[in-house]
Amino acid sequence: MTQQTTTPDGLVIVDKPSGFTSHDVVAKMRGIARTRRVGHAGTLDPMATGVLVLGVERATKLLGHLALTEKEYLGTVRLGQTTVTDDAEGEITSSTDASAVTREAVDAGVAELTGDIMQVPSKVSAIKINGVRSYKRAREGEDFEIPARPVTVSSFTVYDVRDAVAEDGTPVLDLVVSVVCTSGTYIRALARDLGAGLGVGGHLTALRRTRVGPYRLDTARTLDQLQESLTVMPVAEAAAAAFPRWDVDVKRARLLLNGVRLEMPETYAGAGPVAVFDPDGRFLALVEEQRGKARSVAVFG
Question: Can you name one GO molecular function term for this protein (predicted)?
């Protein structure tokens, strides 16, 4: 008789391969972890690789609270060509000689797209317009507009500018860039808008996500590695890394788990979700301050 092993609660930091949707990775992880309770904290386009945060078992309750974090990317922007999807997956819609674009012009264009900006997501994106996914409307040939949304690009850096020639013979420029931004920012929309601002068009040809909140690429594992050895970050460790920590005594821990709204120290006012731990280091709950009291948003203890 084979022994049944229990799937541990926690986060799995995956280094997503290119060509997989985020849902594909979740489906694969369900097989690896032998549980249906797997979810992800924010999608990553099929073309992109890198950090994808998954929750397994009870850690799925953390995911909705992890989504609003800062993200970091390394990518390549091609100036001189536009595509239907604003990335290399889509059909090329225009080609323009970009060889005359100067580094100064590139830097000025990047500066325009840094800070608090309004961004129109790509039409081939998962944004819902009146309840229907944008990419579905685009595939059906519908003519529609997506409203601009506020996003923050805290850092947009060009590391290298390379002369290249596109397959159709057009002289183009490939920019190696890094971006640090808020959740919901589309890097391919940055590529599109940078190219549009420079008058030559642009799209994203490669993208690797190197960080989601506190979770970095150096802690991520490929699906093949996870198949060999499932590496799960325990839910308590994950919560301690992602949220402010509030340690309570035994009495308060008991009251909290019995549904009593504890008085919260003023230091947590407006802090968003706070992770509560008992004296033994056990993760009890995620709470939010509401009128000075702790309102539980997810209980784990």
Answer: RNA binding
Say how far apart CA 50 and CA 212 lie, in whole Å: 10
Say which residues have a Cβ less than 8 Å from residue 168's Cβ, sequence separation at least 6.
92, 95
H/E element holding 246?
Answer: strand 245-247
Which pTM was predicted? 0.86
Q: Domains for the chain: give ranges and CATH numbers.
A: 10-69+213-237 (3.30.2350.10), 70-212 (3.30.2350.10), 243-299 (2.30.130.10)
Q: What is the pLDDT of residues 241-276, one digit of tens each?
A: 889 999 999 999 999 999 999 999 988 888 889 999
- Which residue in 45, 87, 193, 278 is the catalytic one? 45
Quick: pLDDT tens for 109-140.
Answer: 999 999 999 999 886 666 665 666 555 655 55
Q: Is 9 a catalytic residue?
A: no
Chain centre to alpha carbon of residue 277: 27
